[in-house]
Design brief:
2 copies of one chain form a homodimer.
Chain A: H1 8-15, H2 19-29, H3 39-60, H4 67-74, H5 78-81, H6 88-99, H7 101-110, H8 116-133, H9 135-143, H10 150-177, H11 185-201, H12 203-208, H13 213-228
The structure holds a DNA duplex (18 and 18 nucleotides).
DNA sequence: GTCTATACCAGGATAGAC
DNA sequence: GTCTATCCTGGTATAGAC
């Protein structure tokens, strides 16, 4: 494992992004539209709803999921569902917005890491770890972006580019300092993101092969560093 | 450009996978269920239908596309649509099956290329070129796989693994011959596919940046070859 | 806060005229 | 071969009892 980096389990414990915390955050951020006033009740039911919604949507797609299904899968009646959101579309937007909180975690984790190579490793690991913990949210966010309103779609695209920009900046800085070789930083960032996304888009494949997040993180880091000309080629692999 | 490789335009002319050819092939493969007997009529209408279906599906998702929309967008009445497929699900499966023909083109293009490094380059270029020509089909196939029946889903997964296997084999052979260094061939193949898929999944991004397929192909090849330890590091970039 | 019952409409599908 | 008119299921959403 990389020197000074948290292991996946350590990371998971530290960020504490459990379903419950996500749902509490979602509740607090949507007090206006949610009719239930008792927090414990609301959070408990939101967990059931979101768990069911993410499961069903990720299996067959959000628009193919009917609210009747959502009702039976979550154990709440149709009527009850509508006290938590005002329309199916509203539910979609709540999930989408909540998924965006991870970006803050990502940037927070990079705080204070100055060395470009270290930043690169940290960014890759953090992104993978986050998507491992919140896989259903990431998957949903990726697959259902097209169902959003025009306006929200713009925001989703901005978010995509913002994450990518994060990698572009790291690469450029490394080039300025001279530890990365000269090359197209935007393309490097683009394919790095592609590799990171594959982890949650094709989770079944990696699960079947028993590839761990740690292993995948090491691998992606090696590939990118290799291209940037600063890899650990020749060192023993973990 | 790589020695001896076709340019994108040469490739496009050679394979001739126009919308019309795809639709003719689709017609011939579905004579049983398509009620229209005159080939020119059928192919013409299928082009309208598929063009509309791919556009709408790729914009909002297949299940969110109503047949009324499809009707007005394609210029055919509801009744006419149903002479080309027996149900919405049937339409989905026709598109999905037709998308699979590209695999044959991919393998055909590798025929006779023995050298692992050349095979790798060829496989990457061909995959990207194909997805560039048939982007709507690739995109559809990727995004709507979840709507297929259990049985067809298995087939889709097999197809995914088969393409990947193609890359795994190339890498392994290169390792046996000693031109690629020792590493996890499955992971290399996996991330290679991820990069290839990004080309059609995030087409808007590359279009906006005016990245050409040729350029992207060169780049992906460089990244993979770099990791495999056989790159052209130091040579002048095109 | 939660449920059941119901309103209402959009969607897939088809019959039969042309 | 194609269109229009229509059927009817199943979807979203709500009213009102508990």
């Amino acid at each position: 494992m990389a020197k000074g980096e948290l292991s996946f389990e350590e990371f998971r414990r530290m960020v504490s992004l459990s379903m419950e915390n996500m749902c509490r955050d979602l509740y607090l951020g949507n007090r206006a539209s949610i009719k239930i006033k008792k927090e414990p009740v609301a959070v408990g039911n939101l967990m059931k709803i979101l768990d069911a919604a993410l499961t069903l949507s990720n299996k067959k797609g959000f628009s193919a999921m009917s609210l009747r299904e959502l009702s039976s899968q979550s154990g709440l009646s149709m009527g009850a569902l509508y006290t938590y959101f005002s329309s199916k579309e509203d539910l979609l937007h709540m999930i989408q917005r909540e998924s965006a909180v991870v970006f803050d975690v990502l940037t927070a984790q990079l705080e204070g890491v100055r060395d470009p190579q270290a930043r690169l490793r940290r960014a890759i690991r953090t992104h993978l770890f986050l998507s491992e913990i919140l896989r259903p949210w990431f998957y949903f966010s990726y697959m259902e972006a097209k169902n959003l309103s025009k306006q929200e779609q713009k925001k989703a695209i901005e978010a995509e580019l913002l994450t990518e920009k994060l990698f572009v900046d790291i690469v450029r800085e490394g080039q300025d300092v001279g530890v990365f070789r000269d090359c197209d930083a935007e393309l490097v960032a683009a394919v790095t993101k592609a590799m990171l996304q594959d982890w949650y888009l094709k989770r079944w494949k990696y699960a079947r092969r028993k590839t761990t997040v740690e292993r995948y993180a090491e691998f992606v880091t090696d590939v990118v560093e290799g291209y940037l000309g600063c890899g650990r080629r020749g060192e023993k692999k973990s």
